[in-house]
Design goal:
GO biological process, one term: fatty acid biosynthetic process
Number of domains: 1
Subunit structure: Monomer.
Number of helices: 14
Bound molecules: 1,4-dihydronicotinamide adenine dinucleotide, sodium ion
Organism: Flavobacterium capsici
Enzyme class: oxidoreductase
Order of helices and strands: EEHEHEHEHEEEEEHHEHHEHHHEHHH
CATH class: Alpha Beta
Strand order of the largest sheet: 5-4-3-6-11-12-13
Distance between the termini: 28 Å
EC number: 1.3.1.9
Largest sheet: 7 strands, parallel
Radius of gyration: 20 Å
Length: about 400
């Protein structure tokens, strides 16, 4: 069938298998062009199918020649209905990895559950014995707690007071004012349960107990800080409390892994268009101004450039450079004074009429389409595409 983007709010209901495969190939080519990284050889990526997790898996495989196991939650296709992009991304990744002689297998299911943790551990035991790197890159609006069975929902709300600022509907380019009511304590607690560090720590403890972590194993989870204009809804909001918790959990995990000399890190990454970030109010406007500024300065990066740099210049160097809170910073170019000053200036004047000029709205839209396999050069979108092809080797 001819597959076209079908937008509904912050998501696209369709995904293009050939386009998703092109996206993965482009990322692989980028990593290969940067040369080999002397890094991990056996890697588990939790949240491996899209965004930073997919880029981490690609960097592990094609930068470090690593065997990879990927865990994710994606929908398979049915006749006439496409899969979610992460399904096609993974199938394409596995094909490329296998062609390159690299081990790659995947597990599709709820990473928050005991069942998926056990299944993953069994697969590691059977095929790899142990892993030396665990990337934790989940982004989810909900978590079913494995011990209580309670379904927790995260929220994206300010804390303490109502927050009003500009936002953009990136489909139409319409800039408007948005007001978000403050969170109550329950909202905060739920967001910490979903996006905080508890599940990461559960994964690492279960893996250690099962003996599937190599001596000196490293684990990395991803966080975000960002500018003052998004602070109320991001870093000082409900999601920020979850990130505080995630960052604190890194120190707990390092303690828990002391007997095998394991290390847990949080890497603070750059703001990028992903399925997760598109749903956060205010952030898309900030990203479109940031993209414009960083592209002008020759500093722009996507997920793959970020992850390649994380591995090559941070994780696998003699000593991992950390900030005063013990975090890895790969948001260093985003947070540069000249970049932030420029974005702050643009923020003050941004409106519907000038956004396509002072902001990179086109770049935002293109990146959003790319997430679903649309908008790639070299893909014939008028051609018949088979939504049922491209099947990952789900275990
Ligand atoms: P994404 O939406 O592209 O990826 C999320 C991944 O988690 C996918 O592989 C998805 O299948 C998987 N997943 C979701 N729920 C799951 C579940 N219940 N079980 C198994 N897998 C599940 O998100 P993105 O943006 O790559 O986010 C990853 C991490 O990076 C998050 O912690 C996010 O906060 C962080 N981050 C994101 C930034 C951004 O601007 N996008 C900036 C800095 C950090
Ligand atoms: Na991810």
């Amino acid at each position: 069938m001819i597959i076209e983007p079908r937008m509904r709010g912050f998501i696209c209901l369709t995904a293009h298998p050939v386009g998703c495969a092109q996206n993965v190939k482009n990322q692989i080519e980028y990593v290969k062009s940067k040369g080999k990284i002397d890094g991990a050889k056996k890697v588990l990526v939790i949240g491996a199918s899209t965004g930073f997790g997919l880029a981490s898996r690609i960097t592990s495989a094609f930068g470090c020649d690593a065997s990879t196991i990927g865990v994710f939650f994606e929908k398979e296709p049915s006749e006439g209905k496409t899969a979610t992009p992460g399904w096609y991304n993974t199938a394409a990744f596995e094909t490329e990895a296998h062609n390159a002689g690299l081990y790659a297998k995947s597990i599709n299911g709820d990473a928050f559950s005991d069942e998926i943790k056990n299944q993953t551990i069994e697969l590691i035991k059977k095929d790899l014995g142990q892993v030396d790197l665990v990337i934790y890159s989940l982004a989810s609006p909900v978590r079913m707690h494995p011990k209580t069975g309670v379904l927790h929902r995260s929220s994206l709300k300010p804390i303490g007071q109502k927050f009003t600022n500009k936002t953009v509907d990136f489909h139409t380019g319409n800039v408007s004012e948005v007001s978000i009511e403050p969170a109550n304590q329950e909202d905060i607690d739920n967001t910490v349960v979903v996006m905080g560090g508890e599940d990461w720590s559960m994964w690492m403890n279960a893996m250690k107990a099962a003996g599937v972590l190599a001596v000196g194993a490293t684990t990395v989870a991803y966080s975000y800080i960002g500018p003052e204009v998004t602070e109320a809804v991001y870093r000082k909001g409900t999601i920020g409390r979850a990130k505080d918790h995630l960052e604190a959990t890194a120190f707990d995990i390092t303690k828990d892994l002391a007997s095998i000399s394991g290390q847990a890190y949080v890497s603070v990454n750059k703001a990028l268009v992903t399925q997760a970030s598109s749903a956060i109010p205010v952030i898309p406007l900030y990203i479109s101004l940031l993209y414009k500024t960083m592209k002008e300065k020759g500093l722009h990066e996507g997920c793959i450039e970020q992850m390649q740099r994380l591995y090559a210049d941070r994780l696998y160097t003699n000593t991992i450079p950390l900030d005063d809170k013990g975090r890895i910073r790969i948001d260093d170019w985003e947070m540069r004074d000249d970049v932030q000053e420029q974005v702050a200036k643009l923020w003050k004047v941004a409106e519907t009429e000038n956004l396509s000029e002072i902001g990179d709205l086109a770049g935002y839209k293109n990146d959003f389409l790319n997430l679903f396999g649309f908008g790639f050069d070299g893909v014939d979108y008028q051609a018949d595409a088979n939504e049922m092809t491209l099947i990952p080797s789900i275990q």
